[in-house]
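Students often ask why we bother predicting the structure of a whole assembly rather than each chain alone. The short answer is interfaces. A chain on its own may look different once its partners are present, and contacts between molecules only exist in the joint model. In this exercise we take four input lines together and write out one structure for the complete complex. Read the inputs first and try to guess which parts will touch.
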Amino acid sequence: MSFTEYAEKSLREKGYKLTKPRRQVLEAIEKAEGPMSPYDIGKMMEGKGRHLDQVTIYRVINLLCSLNLVHKVFSRGGYVRCDLQEEEGCHRFLVCRGCGHLQEYRDEALCRQESQVAQKLGFQAEHHVTESSGLCKDCQG
Amino acid sequence: MSFTEYAEKSLREKGYKLTKPRRQVLEAIEKAEGPMSPYDIGKMMEGKGRHLDQVTIYRVINLLCSLNLVHKVFSRGGYVRCDLQEEEGCHRFLVCRGCGHLQEYRDEALCRQESQVAQKLGFQAEHHVTESSGLCKDCQG
DNA sequence: AGCCAAATGCAATAGTGTTGCATTACTGCC
DNA sequence: GGCAGTAATGCAACACTATTGCATTTGGCT
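Now the answer. The structure tokens for the assembled complex follow.
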């Protein structure tokens, strides 16, 4: 199931309407190579002769983020599609400082250990957001 | 050694000048309870009859961040002083979704494991940025 | 005291994000 | 297939975040 298909299914199931702007934003994010800013998405639309209000784009992105269909990448700015679809747990990113390449992954053991460390500090962790920077396979050596 | 003392020492040692704006920003961040935006710092100054240019504040903050004397808190916006001073490694945050309380910590084992997981994916991690959300001691139960 | 590189102030500009309200358009129902 | 009602969008305005270039100032040195 493609990203867009999965996202549209998720929206339906949760009772959200499947509107034209939402389809368009999903399509834009599906096609994008890396993180897109709402502004980028607007420009892409404009380039195709369509028009989408910036506010609408923000609202769509917020919705998609809240459903974990899209993630914000803090260290680079912008938003990317979630590549792990229905995989539960905390999704993390590896961000290459060489080429900017982004890889999403998930690791249950890491999540568990992180929560344990928090517990020792009296904190009950619910969600972890992690972005690691370094060098990807192609940029090493 | 207080935050400001330590920061001023670090600046000197690395050859950065100890200017009035830098002292003022350090003082503001030292006193602040939680994350401050550059705009907040500007307003705080204005309130005391002093004036600091926004651009200058940004530049000072960027410098302090690059020296790890101050961290940006992505999930809340704004910047906080580093509470771990000279402790090496990746500094992480626990962010309470109840009261907004922020706690900084460090855990070498976690760091190592995170790098190992990345390694298995062919990625050579250098630095990890983590913010966990959940409930602090006071907000549980 | 004076030098000078580093840092600041100012002006302009661009990107990011939010709110309120009137209008439109999905979805479910007949 | 049309209708009703609610959810979502468009528009306008606004506020915050952040960057660049250049003229001017100043901290740290001799």
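Check your guess against this: The mean pLDDT of chain B is 95.
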